[in-house]
Amino acid sequence: MNTTNDPKTILDPAQALDDRFCDAIRAVAPDLPESQVKAHIGPSRQPKLGDFQSNCAMPIAKQIGMKPRELAAKIVEAIDVSGIAQPLTEESIAGPGFINVSLLQEALGTALDAMDSDQLGISVPADPKTIIVDVCGVNLAKQMHVGHLRSTVIGDAIARIQERLGHEVKRQSHVGDWGLPIAMVVEQLSVMEAEGTDISKVSLAELNTIYKRAQAKCKAETRALEIIKKVGGHVKAEIELSERIADAEAAMEKSKSRLVALQSGDADSVRIWQLIYDITMTACLATCKRLHANITDEHSAGESTYRDELAPLVQDLIDRNIAVEDDGALVVRCEGIKEPTIIRKRDGGFLYATTDLAAIKRRVGKLGGDEVVYCVDSRQSLHFKQVFAAAHKAGYDKTASGSDATLVHAMFGTILGEDNKPLKSRSGENLNLSDLLDEAVMRASASVAEKNPEMPQDERDAISEAVAMAAVKYADLSTERIKDYAFRFDTMLAFEGDTGPYMLYAIARIKNMLRKAEEKGVDLNAAADAPFSLNEPAERAMALMVLRYPSILSAAGSSHEPHRLCGYLYELASLFAKFYEQCPVLKEGVEASQRDGRLRLSMLALRVLEDSCKTLGIPTVDRM
Ligand code: ARG
Questions:
Q1: Please, how many CA atoms are within 13 Å of residue 488, restricted to the half-sphere of its CB?
Q2: pTM here?
Q3: Are residues 164 and 313 in the same domain?
């Protein structure tokens, strides 16, 4: 409990108020269980009435059978807010029992002073955790599509937030690089090579086509034949289909033996596989880089890296009676989940779930994860429920200290097109991510050129690229990840509103102001030590928002929800716009002390805006 009255020691006014309110609640409702002593302090909904409000009177009054306003009056009478806020009176109570609080100028200034450090008020955790974040997860021989935009961009932001909060983060990209589909492509390439194609020159787009062709080639139209046979009288069609099925079955057989060859390390198969791997990953990592996602080669931990761990893992589960036979397959049944987790098929093959069990074992056991966060599509939610439960049953989630690691599926929704259906290309295929990014840059460069006709071309290009990436990333990050959202270039690229370009614009505007100040001979170093200017409502509002940064970041971290930080960024950028409009800084007639106090406030806001963008992985620009 912090009940010091010295404003110089108040670092976080919201926390200090919380403490004081809790003391007052305990005094007026001594029988209230401690778990219900909650101050419910938040920013004021009506800044005219105060800086903060406590909503505690309503729930507590209900609990103890009192009228909320009456309870509010008692709290107001009992509370001691000296050193933090203006004294509370009957006047402080509004509506059904909200209690409004206005901070003392001095307390606000001290809190800002304390925040104005390298760390921006974010303290190193007493007990830093190791957090594994499952990001990206592309599949071999396929181009990245919009779904991988989300696992890359949100996954990287989740990782960055934890890093910023002081935890140790290890990114893992669970690349789909093993199994029958890949063996099909290996088989195809091997045939092409035998026919004289130089397969080392194949592009990812071509690989993608080969992948689809291979899949089609192995797909037996058995069901169609059954129907035709049932209908009868289509002898020619029956013969043709039978032939096609025979071909497909033969192709499938070849792919299966190719898989066996690959799995047993056959040199030629491995060579072709490696080629497919390199082609895919070179393109994928280039896209990650373009997206400013910190995902590199060292983070790739594809399914193939678990290949030697699967058989022993399954054996371990059999030995301990955790996995049982079910109709020839091997399954793990977990309480509360209807569908058993299949870990070995009847034909002896392992599955997606088997690999993910091995991944948990490695991530917790070897990599030391206290927490493993999976940034994966919500359509895989049953898979993760099953895998988490099975891993727990097997004890694969035990950390070195003997506690259970936290396994989280930080799932995301689907990106929709204008028609509110999953975003697809005109021919109905998954939309290629690089094409989408190219289009964003093209569109952004039109606006950037319009706004900066004088700017040299190369600078304009660099800005357009950053604006486009910021726009696409911000649009993806700013909606609650669990929701679907519609992908609209016009909206996301707008310079006004809740968009990436708007955040970049706010930053560029402050930088521009600082450049102008220097041109006018203002000493910015001296301004950085000036007392904050906090008299105007727009200054106070911005100052209070700046102070919320650490708690917002921590909330975004514990929920793995980057959109909370985006919402904050938008609020701060909007408050800066208001401040900029209402509080002249460099204008003729503004006194030096006020100018410096406003410059210092702007510089602190700038650092918080930049830090937020960096923590989200959003690139910024110096001018735009
Ligand atoms: N490769 C998978 C896909 O594209 C995503 C991998 C997700 N991560 C995992 N550990 N299963 O759907």
A1: 10
A2: 0.93
A3: yes
Which ligand 1 atom sits closest to the C-alpha of 376?
Answer: 7
Strand positions, DSSP E, 294-402: 323-326, 329-332, 341-344, 371-374
Condensed to tens digits (0 to 9), the pLDDT of residues 239-285 reads 888 888 998 899 899 999 999 999 999 999 999 999 999 999 999 99
CA distances from 215 to 180, 209, 242, 246 (A): 10, 10, 18, 15
The last residue of a domain, from among 292, 316, 345: 292
Q: Which residue, by CA, sits nearest to atom 9 of ligand 1?
A: 174
Write the CATH number for 101: 3.30.1360.70
**Each residue's pLDDT tens digit, 102-123:** 999 999 999 999 999 999 999 9
The tokens 């938040």 sit on which residue?
42
- How far from 271 is each of 186, 294, 426, 533, CA to CA, in Å? 9, 28, 36, 66
Residue 458's identity, in one-letter code, is D
Q: Are residues 308 and 257 in the same domain?
A: no
Structural domain boundaries, residue 45: 13-115
Residue with tokens 């050193």: 83
Phi and psi dihedrals of 42, rounded to 5?
-145, 170
- The separation between CA 559 and the C-alpha centre of its own chain, rounded to angstroms, equals 10
Ramachandran assignment for 136, one of left (phi > 0), alpha (psi -120 to 50 degrees), beta (any other): left
- For the chain, the domain total comes to 4
Q: Which two tokens stand for residue 288?
A: 């990650």
- Bridge-based pairing of strands 52-54 and 41-43 is antiparallel
Q: DSSP characters for 414-432?
A: PEE-TTSSB-B-TTSSBPB
Instruction: Based on DSSP, count helices (H) and strands (E) in the chain, helices before strands.
Output: 22, 13
176 pocket-lining for ligand 1 (C-beta < 6 Å): yes
* Residue found under tokens 């990287």: 156
Give CA–CA dist 406/397, Å, rounded. 8
For the Cβ of 302 lying below 6 angstroms from any atom of ligand 1, the answer is no
Q: Specify the 3-state DSSP secondary structure of 280.
A: helix
Contact 289, 325 (CB under 8 A): no
| Ligand 1 atom nearest 175 alpha carbon | 1
Q: Which of 518, 541, 537, 542 is nearest to 595 (CA)?
A: 518
Total Cβ atoms within 10 A of residue 518:
11
